[in-house]
Amino acid sequence: MLSFSYAMWFVTQKYFNDEYRTNVWSYTSLDQILAPVFMWSFLFFIDAIRPFRRCFYPTEADQTESTLQSIRGMFADASANHGLGWVTLVGYRLLIVARGMVYFYLGVIYDLEVVYLELTLLRVVLSWAASLLLSFAMPKFIGMTAAEKKTVALPLNVFLKSTGTVLVVVSLALINAQTIST
What we know:
Blueprint: H1 2-20, H2 24-48, H3 50-56, H4 60-64, H5 67-109, H6 112-137, H7 146-152, H8 155-181
């Protein structure tokens, strides 16, 4: 589902750029303004219909907490430690917006298929390599339990992630070979 959403995000960017000449600034502005509108609407909808909470919220605590209570808790957490949470939150959002702008630019300027696969490769390799590195080099720093450390290092998990990486590399090689031959 995540890969499908990620792909659709790229396709919509390309479509709006090609059809309506929506550039990186306008698309990012729309994305940052409309995403919260849709997300908040969705959360309040789930909040209003109790049976949906069990489908979307994993824990009992999440299922019993209303959206407004969650918002109040988020403001309290972000304001703790002299507002350090807000600094972290704003910095994180700035990095996410910058990443989105770079992805938009790359997806529109270059071949979308290649960009998507290259960014997928980068994301997958960084994800599993960082997980392995952090789980063995700094498990206490990231608060990793022994059970989580075992899960990261399971041969099946490492095999699947390695296989995914190889498949993306093969796909990129095939696209490259096709581009060179035409």
